[in-house]
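Running log. JK asked me to keep both predictions on one page so they can be read side by side. First protein, sequence followed by its tokens:
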Amino acid sequence: MAGSRGPIRETPEYRDAQSDPRFTSWVTMQEAAIELEFIVADVPELKPHLYTREGIVLAEHAALERFPGWRDAFAGDNLTVAMRFVYFIGETFRRATEGRWVAVPQAPPKTGALQAIDVQYKSGFHNPADMLQMALAQRSGDRIVKVFDYAIEDHQKWVDAGRPSRT
């Protein structure tokens, strides 16, 4: 994601987005919602598998059962629960790959920022909302875990190489 001004991580918009209260509040709210609602009422079978590969598999299957399609997930009353799935997926990637949550500004004419996971071994970002959308569109039951497995493999290669800088 590089613009005409260079890599996105070097833009003022990117730096400003990291401290935007809408982004920081979203992360804080989702973190609480996982413990208070997601593993209690939405997907209780995840409780013993929080932030694991098995949890990714269970979450994808639960999302497929809950949402008939990706448009249904990101519309109306479903959006709140869909964003809990997004957070769970992203947080699992973050923990497994030494990543961090970031806000990625969208190119005009869109406004706001995407919540994503930034990792040192990749020039792009892991976008958990896109992963959920892809899983709900393709409905194979293994889309997200395949991406997760590749991320784990790429992370390990980066660790084995001595954690070189992204540049």
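And the second, directly underneath as requested:
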Amino acid sequence: MHYLALDIETCPLPVDGYSAQQQARLQREMQFLRQRNPDVEEDDLRLQAASLHPLLSWIVCISVQRAVDDPLQPNEPHSYLAQTPDDEREMLRRFWEDIQRFVERSNKICWITFNGKRFDVPFLLARTLHHGLLPVPCGLLDSYPYSHYPHCDLFNLFSGINLGLADLCALLHIENPKAHGDGGQVQQLLEVEGIDGVRRYCEADVKATLLCFARLLPLLPESCQPPAK
């Protein structure tokens, strides 16, 4: 069994380049968020709204960490980076090309995300299609919330509870990957620390996701389990 944990980070496209459609979408997203957080500053609200929608943002980083049979003994994460929007298409092409090669030589893959079925994967799919590319059939696009293979979304194990990745790490006594910020600060991180700062942040998330999965694996169905020795 190959376990592949995945996480993405996004950054708003330049607002001065937004089309009328993008401007309208931004206003709707801001209105929706304002109802939930009426005291948030306008600039922070705009940044958050743009970061969460694939029409308004690009993917800065995709990080993947792999483990074979034992998720407690993973390889080091590998990241795909797009320092600017112009770099995104090539980054996505390389990502799917690598996934295609991996699928061809791996007979069983379990993808692991945290809230990936609602955010990371739909966002990844939308940006892939935007660039005229096609995703590779590999199980990652499985979005059924109550299945845990071929895509195990840890967020769905706790449906009905407002539980973030940092919360789950605290429950399981795992180091908090959000100690130095969250996904809403990626633009600032990119400006201050550059693309390598974003990579480090994304890889911290993906490491924590895989470690949480390893702790929860005994609770998961047989389809997620490694082969018997």
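Observation for JK regarding the second prediction: Residues 3 and 32 are 36 Å apart (CA to CA).
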